Amino acid sequence: MSSALLIVDVQNDFCPGGALPTPQGDKVVPVINKLMEKFTLVIASRDWHPENSNHFKIWSAHCVRETYGADFPGELHTDKLDEIFMKGTGTMDDGYSAFEATNKNLAEYLTENRADELYVTGLTAEYCVKSTVLDALKSGFKTYVIKDAVEGIRRSEDDFEKAFEDMKEAGAVVLSSDELTI
Question: Band of the pLDDT at 156, cuts 50, 70, 90?
Fold first, then answer.
């Protein structure tokens, strides 16, 4: 069996200057780029919303398909990605979890590629990362969250830290990139 690195929604609209920015979303990119070198299977999820998504009744419009905001930041080494999982693609589809991807089934993909451990990075801790981690655990994958490769919206520091506590309580292992032993 093997391990996979999953990069959740590291997209321009979630980085500083984007439509729905995390204060330090761009800070995860160098950490993720280094992590990619350690894994043979590297995958990413991407919000890919239609312009008329009901999701925009909750959040400001972001990651609208075929726009700059939906693109990955230029600094992210996308040439290392084996697969991209598109989520939030329908008008009624919020797409918080990468396991809700509509172009390919993430759980099946991981199983087909003999990955039983999933290392999760990305944006945002409180929403898409947390939803993805909880679904990974429900799907039976040993799940790790690399905290220094995750950033949050940080409406409050308590919400950000609570997201990690919730993931730990559900069974995820939270570690830093320098603790990785792959």
Answer: confident
